[in-house]
């Protein structure tokens, strides 16, 4: 994926900038719920396999978060988890959360809270088909603002006095500062792709035709960041796309998209939808990036229907592990992981049920480890 230089340019990136020379890393492991408990160990195995070749040493700390943790302790994200991540870890792997679809008093999504607590303002989600596979050519990076929009979780329910019926309202927040940060990292990623590929396009996704103030601000600030630094970003094609037509075009013409930057909600929806272009959510990774820590996180959910059966696809987690290493400055190790995963997918001999196979989670891990 080659995203390290973009990480170096993150504003205030004190912690990450020093990690390029660090050969001993402390990694927090947060399985969460459901298949998270099965795929996070896969990421750990891959990291351990890198030790001899790459000279990397890892210390692992098992940490708790999730709905089960909430049921056991009354807290979905224990204070101890946040404290250890802040004080001891350079990176972490987060599995999945089994959040209920109906309101549970006192419960709130731990991954949303974790992003806020750790300052993880950028969620980087590459969606790429493997050259030589049967998938249609796709090579895009969705850069999702990670701290605001509707995910600030300010909601209320009240009785409308005129009708006597219930009304629910949610606050959508878009700030200039957060948009400047996410636009900058998206432009830097596009610049790197321009340098590597000779061309790059940045597409700003919004719904400002309806949400003229909130999405309008996101659109305006992204353009301002591009225009103010036009000499630096010369050669990058700048586009804007309304989110509903973006979804249509993404499925019809995925080859038209390169780097996509979006507010939190649209970025979440677009990246999950884009996974269908490359076969499964089980192969799409992400990295939550902030100034002090990187947390790799597969894009899939907790999949309670297959949890405990040993058949979950570990590839999204393994790719997320590689992304974490890229942003921590260990690009050679990361690229070796990417190549091993690509070889597994290209051959198509050892694959889990979501990709049409019958392999177990560990079968896939073993195949990728053998290729490393």
Automatic annotation (TrEMBL):
Keywords on record: Amino-acid biosynthesis, Lysine biosynthesis, Magnesium, Metal-binding, NAD, Oxidoreductase, Phosphoprotein
Domain (Isopropylmalate dehydrogenase-like) ranges: 26-368
Record's GO cellular component terms: mitochondrion
Pathway entry: Amino-acid biosynthesis; L-lysine biosynthesis via AAA pathway; L-alpha-aminoadipate from 2-oxoglutarate: step 4/5
Signal peptide segment: none
EC class (word): oxidoreductase
Single GO MF annotation: homoisocitrate dehydrogenase activity
PANTHER family: DECARBOXYLATING DEHYDROGENASES-ISOCITRATE, ISOPROPYLMALATE, TARTRATE, HOMOISOCITRATE DEHYDROGENASE, MITOCHONDRIAL
Protein name: homoisocitrate dehydrogenase
Organism of provenance: Huiozyma naganishii (strain ATCC MYA-139 / BCRC 22969 / CBS 8797 / KCTC 17520 / NBRC 10181 / NCYC 3082 / Yp74L-3) (Yeast)
UniProt lineage: Eukaryota, Fungi, Dikarya, Ascomycota, Saccharomycotina
Gene field: KNAG0A05420
């Amino acid at each position: 994926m080659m995203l390290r230089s973009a990480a170096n340019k993150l504003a205030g990136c004190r912690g990450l900038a020093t990690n390029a020379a660090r050969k001993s890393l402390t990694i927090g492991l947060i399985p969460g719920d459901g298949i998270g408990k099965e795929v996070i160990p896969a990421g750990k195995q891959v990291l351990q396999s890198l030790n001899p070749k790459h000279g990397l040493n890892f210390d692992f700390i098992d940490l708790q978060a999730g709905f089960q943790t909430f049921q056991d302790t009354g807290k979905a994200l224990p204070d101890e988890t946040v404290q250890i991540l802040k004080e001891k870890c350079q990176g972490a792997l987060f599995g999945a959360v089994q959040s209920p679809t109906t309101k549970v008093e006192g419960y709130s999504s731990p991954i949303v809270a974790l992003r806020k607590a750790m300052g993880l303002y950028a969620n980087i989600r590459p969606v790429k088909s493997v050259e030589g596979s049967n998938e249609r050519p796709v090579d895009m990076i969705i850069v999702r603002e990670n701290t605001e929009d509707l995910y600030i979780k300010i909601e209320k329910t009240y009785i409308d006095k005129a009708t006597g019926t219930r009304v629910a309202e949610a606050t959508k927040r878009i700030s200039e500062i957060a948009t400047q940060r996410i636009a900058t990292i998206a432009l830097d990623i596009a610049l790197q792709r321009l340098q590597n590929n000779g061309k790059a396009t940045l597409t700003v996704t919004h719904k400002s035709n309806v949400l003229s103030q909130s999405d309008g601000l996101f659109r305006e600030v992204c353009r301002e960041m591009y225009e103010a630094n036009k000499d630096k970003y010369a050669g990058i094609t700048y586009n804007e796309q309304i989110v509903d037509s973006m979804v249509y075009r993404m499925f019809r013409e995925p080859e038209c998209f390169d780097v996509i930057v979006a507010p939190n909600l649209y970025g979440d929806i677009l990246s999950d939808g884009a996974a269908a272009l490359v076969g499964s959510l089980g192969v799409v990774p992400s990295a939550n990036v902030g100034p002090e820590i990187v947390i790799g996180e597969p894009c899939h959910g907790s999949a309670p229907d297959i949890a405990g059966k040993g058949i979950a696809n570990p590839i999204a987690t393994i790719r997320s592990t590689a992304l974490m290493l890229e942003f921590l400055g260990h690009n050679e190790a990361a690229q070796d992981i990417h190549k091993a995963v690509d070889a597994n997918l290209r051959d198509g001999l050892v694959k889990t049920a979501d990709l049409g196979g019958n392999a177990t989670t560990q079968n896939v891990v073993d195949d990728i480890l053998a290729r490393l």
